[in-house]
């Protein structure tokens, strides 16, 4: 099974929202059985998803209430077929952790043929979280089919 790993700082807002959105896109398009989506953080520490992130994702009927953050490990990086980070700094950190994985690490924005980092809503308003979730959703709309194609080429 092809694994997509989404990475942010604490794995309490951006990457769990991205994980839920991407899983939903795959499920709606009947490719969820082919691709496993996971998330982790550079500093994850077994915490629940941030309340505003849970609320932001519910508008699409998605639920991350049971999410627990986890710290990125070299084994996770090695097992993933594709790693999408929320920022360029996250990408650099993943590449430092396991340099041989460099070719499969991209920011979500660059994978969607854009360049802006996904801003961190942590500590912001509920509207900040909604805007962040919308940005992630828009980028995943542009790139989920590319992920499916990549997964098909890897199997």
Characteristics:
155 residues, Ptyr_pPase, alpha/beta
Write up what this structure looks like.
- This protein is of the alpha/beta class.
- Helix content is 46%, strand content 14%.
- The protein is built from 6 helices and 4 strands; from the N terminus they run E-H-E-H-H-E-H-E-H-H.
- Strands 2-1-3-4 form a 4-stranded parallel β-sheet, sandwiched between helices.
- The longest helix is centred in the C-terminal third of the chain and has 29 residues, at 126-154.
- The termini are close together.
* Order of SSEs: EHEHHEHEHH
- What's the number of domains? 1
Could you report the average pLDDT, rounded to the nearest whole number? 95
List unreliable stretches of 5+ residues. Answer: none
Number of helices: 6
Q: How would you write the strand order of the largest sheet? A: 2-1-3-4
- CATH architectural category: 3-Layer(aba) Sandwich
Beta-strand content estimate: 5-15%
Per CATH, the class reads: Alpha Beta
Helix content: 40-55%
Evaluate the radius of gyration.
Answer: 14 Å
> Outline, from the CA principal axes?
globular
């Amino acid at each position: 099974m092809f694994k997509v790993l989404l990475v942010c700082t604490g794995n309490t807002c951006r990457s769990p929202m991205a994980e839920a959105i991407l899983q939903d896109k795959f499920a709606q398009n009947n490719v969820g059985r082919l691709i496993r989506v996971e998330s982790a953080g550079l500093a994850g520490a077994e915490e629940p998803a941030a309340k505003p992130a849970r609320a932001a994702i519910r508008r699409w009927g998605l639920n991350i209430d049971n999410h627990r953050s986890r710290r990125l490990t070299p084994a996770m990086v090695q097992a993933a077929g594709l790693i999408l980070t929320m920022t360029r700094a996250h990408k650099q950190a993943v590449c430092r952790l396991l340099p041989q994985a460099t070719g499969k690490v991209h920011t979500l924005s660059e994978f969607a043929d854009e360049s802006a980092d996904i801003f961190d809503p942590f500590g912001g308003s509920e509207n900040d979280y909604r805007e962040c979730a919308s940005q992630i959703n828009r980028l995943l709309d542009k790139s989920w089919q590319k992920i499916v194609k990549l997964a098909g080429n890897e199997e």
